[in-house]
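URGENT: need a sanity check before tomorrow's submission.

F., can you look over the DUF1616 domain-containing protein record below? I want to be sure the sequence and structure line up before it goes out.
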Amino acid sequence: MAGNRLLPLDLLLVAGLVILTDIFVLVPALSVSFLRTVLGLLMVLLLPGYALTGALLPAKKDLEGIERALLSLGLSIAVVPLMGLGMNYTDWGIREVPVLTGLSAFTLLMCGVAYYRRLHLPEAEAFEVTVRTSISTLKTEFMEETDSKADKILASLVIISMLVSLGSLAYVIGNPREGESFTEFYILGPDRVAENYPTEYAPSDSGTVIVGIKNHEQRAMDYTMEIRLENRSLPLPENQKYIRLDHNESWEQPVTFTPPVEGNNMKLEFLLFNETEKNVPYRSTHLWINVTKET
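Structure tokens as predicted:
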């Protein structure tokens, strides 16, 4: 059994990345950073599997560096869904903070187990990662002649595949797909639910509904709203007729109108026009109302 030894560089790096990921996810000022995405991907795709591999295979002879890296990826892909499945049956559910807490605790625990198991091996036999060793291994694999060209080709293909995957991942992160562009347009009753709409009126009565607009167009939009009763435009105040919303901004206000004519089953239309088309409604909804004299 070896005496006290410093925490190995690879386990120290894993533990540091776990803590750094927690900071970038939990601190609001840092949660919008690009590094949050990078660290989150490492937490999901590599760190738990690497720590578990270290706990299961603490000796150098157990596994080579490249095989260890591939096993780390595979184990991470297995561990994360299993942890999510377990979280789903708890009061916490599958939410960001509980899942992050679980992954962090698991990874740090496995780092501790890996360190403990390496301590119980002779120092020369315990797996470790150093810059000098890594460079020496690469030189041995690719610059020196070996008996097995097949192993050399296989190792090259594995490294190329990993680089291509990382490059593709970086491209996807740096060039996210633009989401679908659309606008929500709806009306609610006075209680702000989709029921109990006012549909019965006496002459000169006014009615009120809640009108809502949500901009998901990926840019700021200028809208024009119009209310028509049997194709007859009803007056609206300027702040409700012309509405400007930034991306993901919402507008929801009570809108009051007075039907100017009597009739049964009249179509009361709520029309929304966008900034590029002023004659054809971009979104619309309607109610059927009755305006009759009291008998």
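My own read: The chain has a mean pLDDT of 82. The radius of gyration is 32 Å. If you see anything odd, call me.
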